Amino acid sequence: MKTRSAITFGPLTLGLSVLALVGTVGAVATSTIAAASAREQSRGEKKGAGEAKAAQIALSQRQIGSAIRHAEAAVAYQPQVVSYRMTLGQSYLKAGRFASARDAFADALTLDSGNGKAALDCALAQIATGDWAGARKTLDAHADTIAVADRGLAIALTGDPAAAVELLATAARAPDADATLRQNFALSLALAGRWREARTVVGVDLAPVDADKRILEWANFAQPKSASDQVASLLGVTPSMDPGRPVALALNTPQVATTAMAAAEPIDTYMPGKVEAAAPVEVAAVSEMQAAPVGPSIAGVVFAERKEVVQAIPVSARGVRKAVVARVALAKVAPAAVQPRVAAKGNFYVQLGAYENAGVAHDAWGRVTRRNAAFGGHTPQGMSVTAAGKTFYRLSVGGFARPDAVALCQTYRAKGGACFVRAGAGDQVAMWAKGRELASR
Prior knowledge:
This protein is α+β, with helices and mostly antiparallel strands. The protein is 55% helix and 8% strand. It is globular and about 75 Å long.
């Protein structure tokens, strides 16, 4: 019996000992792996932080190529760190790589949906790539986290300056309104073709000579030749060929509720018409002159080194006047600042171009209707304007409520066309369309 007992329990005892030994070895191995993983993670964090710091230094020294390399390395080490993706996006912006910047800021928004800076920069990059509808959605979705002054000007750059004026008008009359907000309001007025009022607002913060110079600069700014011109001018950068953000740096998590949409196909022209004017005044005449292509930096409109979309004030300016003076000047603008919102009809027009004469505009209308059949149901309108000794014929369709005008313009842009929305300025039915209009009655 004792022998049987030894034979029976001996192997069992030995088995328990082996299991205990294996368990001990497994625990040690797991602990070793965990420690190694922690060391590797710590090493990655240190390298990521080092690369991010190097990127910031390179940016401050305007070594953009180096900044991009370091920022990409930082994101590769720690893809979940929002600040690293923000640095990467800023580096792409400085390089004029707007598509890559858009993707970087969209990833930052995915990680931190309350990041107003990421939302604003993403919208600007979307505008620069021709995705005006996507930019507007981004701005609207993050309205609570983007400063009103920045959001208003960005909305104007999406092609809806009338909405920007409406948003900024109230804020500009507030007691705490600053020069930045007023200048953005003034530029939005200018982009809406309301040059007389823009000059009035600019004059609140600038000396008369500087204010006139600013208006002349904006006359060029308001006539971009491509989708990226205005954003590039504001940022003080030159657009460049963009190979796209490295695929390996894409955020792996699903992009939910970021409103950062894929960019529309880049277009060759943007806002083909000349700058509009609410009335035939001298400043408005400047807006109609032929302008050279917008350069990478427009004096007085650069905000590359700032954290917000702002209009710089020259050192030679008189400085900000007393608040009561600003309110008085802005009060003159207030009555016309907010356009009435009508359900179906209104005083908003989609301008399609400014041409040498009505005959050229007639030919252009044919091309417009072939590109977008939606215009076939509308009556072409226009008016002749003389500026700087030259006569132009503005081609438009209108009489819409603002939302309808914006929607029609965006539809045309989506098909490769170029247009912008403005308030009515005396547009009349085109001569070649009057016969058709009478026949339809």
